[in-house]
Amino acid sequence: MSPTESSREENVYMAKLAEQAERYEEMVEFMEKVTKAVTGILPSLRLGLRGRKLQRALCWLTSLLRILLFLNWLLPTQ
Fold first, then answer.
1. What Gene3D superfamilies does UniProt report for this protein, alphabetically (predicted)?
2. The domain containing residue 70 runs over which residues?
């Protein structure tokens, strides 16, 4: 487990304890720490999703081109 994961888990745990103790200001502070750690990961996840969408679009276009070439070969112009 990486240090960021352990600190994240610790902050979540502390936020749960603060909630049980009805110390809501402290709970908010711990959850803010968790969200700040997560926001650093999100841009790379978005980039990965864009890459997958682009890959799917390229696969779809390649399949379409193959079908069109096959139809062109199957039905030659007269």
1. 14-3-3 domain (1.20.190.20)
2. 49-78
* Per-residue pLDDT at 49 exceeds 80: no
Q: How many residues does the chain have?
A: 78
State how far the alpha carbon of 43 is from the alpha carbons of 31, 32, 36, 48, in Å.
Answer: 20, 18, 13, 9
Cβ atoms 18, 30 nearer than 8 A: yes
Question: What is the value of pTM for the model shown?
Answer: 0.46
How far is it, in rounded angstroms, from Cα 67 to Cα 61? 10
Write the DSSP string, 8-21. HHHHHHHHHHHHHT
- Confidence class of residue 3 from pLDDT cuts 50, 70 and 90? low
Instruction: Name the nearest CA neighbour of 33 among 52, 13, 49.
Output: 13
